[in-house]
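Appendix B. Raw example, untouched.
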Amino acid sequence: MSSKSVNGTLTPETTFNPHLYRKDFPVLSREVHGKPLVYLDNAASSQMPQQVIDSYAEYHGSYHSNVHRGVHALSQQATDEYEGAREYIRAYINASSTKEVIFTSGATDSINLVAQSYGRTNIKEGDEILITNMEHHANIVPWKMLCEETGAVLKVIPITDKGELDLEAFEELLSEKTAILGVVMVSNALGTINPVKEMIAKAHEKGAVVVVDGAQAMPHVRIDVQDLDVDFFAFSAHKVYGPTGCGVLYGKKSLLEEMPPYRGGGDMILSVSFDEVIYNQLPYKFEAGTPGISQVIGLARALKYVDEIGVEKIAAWEDELLSYATQEIKKIPQVKVIGEAENKASVLSFVIEGVHPHDIGTILDEDGIAIRTGHHCAQPVMERFCIPATSRASFAFYNTKEEVDALIASLKKVIEIFT
């Protein structure tokens, strides 16, 4: 997006005003240690707007009841809202049917469902599971466990010094033995946006099934699962302005129908006797027990909120913030940016020579600035760059250039203290 704003000051050419939306987020008006909160930890969990909080509270205050099978008014209203949320999410990601929208506790749970249900059924000794060096642990550990259980082989696509996938190596590693490709759409540690559509097409040519971790992509990229032709797509509500403890697994109906249930219990059955269990139809076959009803309703409201603003406008402003922050942080000689892919989402990871990231995070917190420090559940990324951890500032559309300036000023204070 082209903009003439300087340090968040609007000019006639500016087409996005984050201040219009900041008022929707109650937490952004609070202080931390006597300083205005500067929340730059959005890749871990984005904040919830009042509209989502209200939808969550309305369920609990007005029609709290279990869904499905209830004949009384509250249960029917809860069911209508819950299944209405499923339909909204189906349309948002352009799934062909609500049967392809499975509610889970989050992206991690979604990937584990695929590994344990599809994987146990279809993967055999000698098969290869191909993942990337930039995966979150949630898209590593389930496949490692499956390989140990089945005798399959785990292979890893390397990443370059810029933090991009080595696509030549990807094509060399991809073969007729590749049964599953697991790939993150947007790296939580580096911000890299991967060319998943092209990777999916190449994997399908070899007969592989593709699982995309879309947790970091949802807030920044318009997702169309049919256009991607992805087999499985996982995401979490709390990354996209919704509640914690809720997520979605999209799966192609043809694959889901052949997969056995992952968990047993209520709602995933049609009938139970000691002699026979008849499982429910999709999507309920994979939704055992009482679901996170208010969380699902909140997720749908969060996606509606994003849709009302426009994800393209959101991404453009976040790109501008990232560009500005990268430009300013590179003016500090002691700072090294980790991950400089050409195509990035709003994640800025960095190290300061001689200063541990936890010390950086502590001093920034004293200034009211919230960032994330550590390995970000992506230890192989840290190993690739020969570092124990990074500091990570991650931006949302409600962040401003003034907040970037506050980050830069606080980092200079860190350097004064430690160097």
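End of appendix B.
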